[in-house]
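Input structure tokens:
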């Protein structure tokens, strides 16, 4: 069983434990720890690809490896099927996300074959799969998945992201801009925060798509925009810092996608 890390790796005890299960197909590190933007107290985001229910193993690992005095949760479903606990008394916090192998293949099918856009974060899972650092592989499945994720950005997906998100910036009768203006008028501070966040999510999704950059997720967006969006005419960092709700850059560019 090819465990791809040794005993010096912070996650070795976790990976070694998972490698003994026939239901674990692969384990991969994702998120800030596979970029150069991690800080010393960054948590470890881990994808565990499965082919069955790991309820007993998950509980056993937490009992054996987690800090007994810290927060511990198993089978959370607020954002995904995940566990959250601290590895040992002085170890890092872990966000363990459990996905079926079929789910991972479907995520790539949605963007690479179906060219499906979302209102924000359209290519975030694709990026996670592409950039993941393997920790354990039972066979060649995960490596093949990652090779598939290296494909170029499909032009139809790029266009679909713009066409889906752009109307909700300003033209749609229920656009985030319109809802934001209404919230401001009625002095609804919570709604203002919610609608502005939604507007920014769609706006940033367009910026990354136009620049053919896979979405990096929720954190440190401006840093990724500055580093990875290389064409300043395509609405990157300056526009993202000062969004123009009235006449956005994409009004002039959405018909110019190649």
């Amino acid at each position: 069983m090819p465990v791809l890390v040794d005993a010096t790796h912070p996650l070795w005890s976790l990976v070694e434990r998972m490698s003994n299960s026939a239901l674990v197909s692969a384990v991969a590190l994702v998120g800030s720890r596979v970029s150069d933007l991690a800080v010393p107290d960054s948590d470890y985001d881990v994808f565990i690809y499965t082919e069955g229910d790991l309820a007993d193993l998950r509980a056993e690992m937490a009992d054996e490896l987690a800090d007994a005095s810290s927060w511990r949760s198993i089978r959370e479903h607020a954002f995904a099927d995940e566990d959250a606990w601290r590895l040992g008394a002085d170890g890092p916090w872990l966000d363990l996300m459990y996905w079926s192998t079929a789910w991972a293949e479907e995520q790539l099918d949605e963007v690479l074959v179906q060219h499906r856009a979302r209102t924000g974060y359209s290519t975030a899972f694709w990026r996670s799969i592409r950039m993941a650092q393997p920790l354990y592989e039972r066979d060649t499945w995960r490596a093949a998945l990652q090779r598939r994720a290296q494909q170029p950005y499909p032009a139809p997906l790029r266009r679909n992201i713009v066409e889906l998100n752009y109307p909700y910036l300003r033209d749609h009768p229920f656009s985030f801009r319109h809802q934001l203006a209404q919230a401001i008028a009625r002095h609804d501070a919570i709604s203002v925060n919610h609608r502005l966040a939604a507007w920014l999510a769609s706006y940033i999704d367009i910026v990354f798509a136009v620049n053919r950059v896979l979405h990096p997720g929720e954190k440190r967006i401006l840093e990724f925009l500055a580093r990875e969006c290389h064409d300043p005419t395509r609405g990157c960092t300056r526009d993202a810092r000062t969004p123009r709700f009235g006449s956005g850059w994409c009004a002039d560019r959405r018909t110019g996608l190649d």
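The chain has eleven helices and six strands. The two ends are 45 Å apart (CA to CA).
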